[in-house]
Amino acid sequence: MSTGSVVHAADVEVLHWWTSGGEAAALNVLKEDLASQDIGWVDMPVAGGGGEAAMTTLRARVTAGDPPTAVQMLGFDIQDWAEQGTLGNLNDVAEAEGWADVVPEALQAFSKYDGNWIAAPVNVHSTNWVWANKAILDELGIEQPTTWDEFVAALQTVQDSGKVALGHGGQAWQDATIFDGVVITAGGPEFYKQAFIDLDIDALGSETMVEAFNRMDTLRGFVDDNFSGRDWNLASAMVINGEAAFQLMGDWAKGEFLNAGKVPGEDFLCFRMPGTEGSVTFNSDQFAMFDVSDDDAKAAQAAMAASIMSPTFQSAFNVVKGSVPARTDVPDTDFDDCGKKGMVELAEAAEAGTLMGSMAHGHANRAAVKNAIYDVVTAHFNGEYDAETAAEELANAVEGAM
Hints:
The chain is an alpha/beta fold. The protein has helices at residues 21-35, 52-63, 76-83, 91-96, 99-102, 105-111, 134-139, 148-160, 172-197, 201-204, 207-220, 232-240, 253-259, 295-308, 311-321, 337-352, 367-381, 387-401, and strands at 12-16, 41-45, 70-74, 112-113, 116-117, 119-121, 125-126, 129-133, 164-167, 244-248, 268-272, 280-283, 285-289, 355-357.
């Protein structure tokens, strides 16, 4: 093996980008479970939050004919590797353990290719959350907003008090994360699906999309002057420290609040972006298994997949990660209030057909389309286009990238 480690027949070599303290601790649960089955773990951590560096490393390994056993992947990357015929088959373990009954169909769309299980989902993050500083809201007499208009009124009240209303980092993926929710507030879940999942060009250039961009203009008016290039966790820190009232960010933000010793419901509030209740836009980390010929290696892969999907691991890992389990039958006992809420809302959205892949996080469409959308959303947020032009540009950009 190219890592220079001594690898036994039943070891798993795992490529991932979970290198922060909490994530590493969560992965340890998986390592220990496999160790109890006499399966060794060869760690291949590649730092970088979105996994771009990990994918570069992976391409080099696959090209050299030496793929790792298991690789952390997101969304359409899994499907792209499956199309190349490089992934293994997990049908036996999936069938024996009844994955099809407990993994939401929206996730199965990424875990399966041509009807075969090729990856084991670890978690579900969702993007249409609001994080709020409770002390600021209490001080200003603001109730938790439940509609778009109430949310805008709350933002205005905060701004009028001299505080920053919306903590935000001006990076393309952060702008797009907000846009996930804003598009649902403007047109509902069916419109979101038409525009981002079906890539309906008429929907992308429609009056409803113009309204979504108008709403982005509104939010832009509540962001402080220093937002450009700010990392997402620094925007979270603004809310934690009482410098800003709200942040629109995925549920990975919760870890920042918990690490700062803040308690959900007491110090901060977590709720869906007003106007998106009932809808959940998600991204899900999965471990894709590469095709290996050795029987012992195959058995080790199956054991790892079974361990990832065990309710014990799903609970232990997601409690630490801020996400919710990828199976809907895991008890919520160890989760905090935000986690419990996330689990209920995920199950309800899965049932209602409103659990939808996040455009911003590569679960609604392929990378070329996602990047084309990013360019337009960010250009608009930075004042290069008005709302009408932005909707027109969006339709053109997506059509050109398809």
